[in-house]
C-alpha cells in the first residue's frame, strides 16, 4: 500500500505543470527580489521619485503588500481581507523604508504559514477576488504575481533613471 | 469504462494548479497585451526612446520574441533554437514597427501550433534552456513569461514618460 501510494504521488507530480509547493517557492522568489528593489532605493526617492506622473515605488510596493496579504487569505479561505494590521490595495505606505520592509517581512511569514492550508482543488474553484475580480483561483493568483512583476519592472526604470544598478532579475 | 475515464480526468484537473491548456492561454494573454504595448509606441520612439541608459522598447520586444520562439521549441522538444527566420535573444529588431508586429504574430501562431505537442510530464523534466539556464521546464518557462512582464512594465514607464496612456494591464 505504501509503495503504491508513493508511486501514485510521483505520477501525479510528473503529470502536473506546477505543484502548490513549487508555486509558493516561485512566488516567494519573486517577493524576495521585490524586497531587494525596495532596499535599493534611497529612502527619499522611495517616497518621492516618479516618472510620467506614476506613483513612487513606496506606493507600488505598498500595492503589492495590500494585494498579497488579503490575497493569500482569499486564495486559501475565500476571505479577501486582512485585519491585523488592516491591509488592502488602498492602504498607504508606512512613513519609513524600515517599516515598509518590516510589513513586507510580516506578509512573507504569513504567506508561508497559510500556503500549506490551501487544498489543491482550491486552484480551480471560482471566486470573486477582493470583491472585484471574478475567475478561477489559479488565474486570480497569477494576476497577483504578475502585477508584482509588472510594477517591480517599473521600479527598475526608476532606479536606472536615478543612476542606481537594480538587483539582477534572476536573483531570487 | 468511459464514465470512469471522465471522472479520472475531472479529478486530475481539479487537483492541478494549472493545466497546460490554461498555461498557454495565460501566456498568450500576456503576449496579446505586450503586442498592444508595441502598437502604442509611435514608430520613432519605439526605436529611439529610452530612460536611464536602458534599451528602447523595440529591443525589449525583440528580446521577448527572441526568447519565445526558441523557447517554445525548447519546452516542447529540448531544442532551444529557432531557424526560419533565425531568432535568438541577440537578434536585432527588424527596421519597422510593422515588421516587428508581423514577427510577433508569426511567433504567436507558432506557439499555438507547437504547444499541444508538449507532453504533460515534460514540465518536470530538467533541461538547459538556451544552453545557459539549468532547471525544471516549468521554472524555465515561467522565467520566459516573467521576463516579458518585467520588460513590458518598463515599456509602460516609457509610454507614460512620453505622455501616452498604456493599455490596461488587465486587458489581455
TrEMBL record, chains A, B:
Per its UniProt record, what Pfam families does this chain match?
DinB
Instruction: Name the domain of life this protein comes from.
Output: Bacteria
The membrane-spanning stretches of this chain are: none
Keyword list (alphabetical) reads:
Metal-binding
InterPro entries, alphabetized: DinB, DinB/YfiT-like
Spell out the family assignment given in the record's similarity comment.
Belongs to the DinB family.
| Protein name (record) | Damage-inducible protein DinB
Amino acid at each position: 500500500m505504501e509503495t503504491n501510494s508513493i508511486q501514485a504521488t510521483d505520477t501525479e507530480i510528473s503529470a502536473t505543470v506546477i505543484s502548490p509547493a513549487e508555486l509558493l517557492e516561485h512566488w516567494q522568489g519573486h517577493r524576495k527580489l521585490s524586497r531587494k528593489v525596495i532596499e535599493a532605493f534611497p529612502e527619499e526617492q522611495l517616497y518621492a521619485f516618479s516618472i510620467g506622473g506614476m506613483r513612487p515605488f513606496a506606493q507600488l510596493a505598498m500595492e503589492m503588500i495590500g494585494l498579497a496579504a488579503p490575497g493569500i487569505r482569499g486564495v486559501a479561505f475565500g476571505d479577501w481581507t486582512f485585519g491585523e494590521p488592516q491591509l488592502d490595495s488602498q492602504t498607504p505606505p508606512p512613513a519609513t523604508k524600515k517599516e515598509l520592509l518590516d510589513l513586507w517581512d510580516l506578509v512573507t511569514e504569513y504567506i508561508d504559514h497559510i500556503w500549506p492550508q490551501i487544498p489543491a482543488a482550491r486552484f480551480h474553484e471560482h471566486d470573486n477576488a477582493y470583491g472585484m475580480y471574478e475567475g478561477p483561483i489559479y488565474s486570480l493568483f497569477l494576476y497577483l504575481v504578475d502585477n508584482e512583476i509588472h510594477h517591480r519592472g517599473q521600479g527598475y526604470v526608476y532606479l536606472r533613471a536615478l543612476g542606481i544598478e537594480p538587483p539582477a532579475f534572476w536573483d531570487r
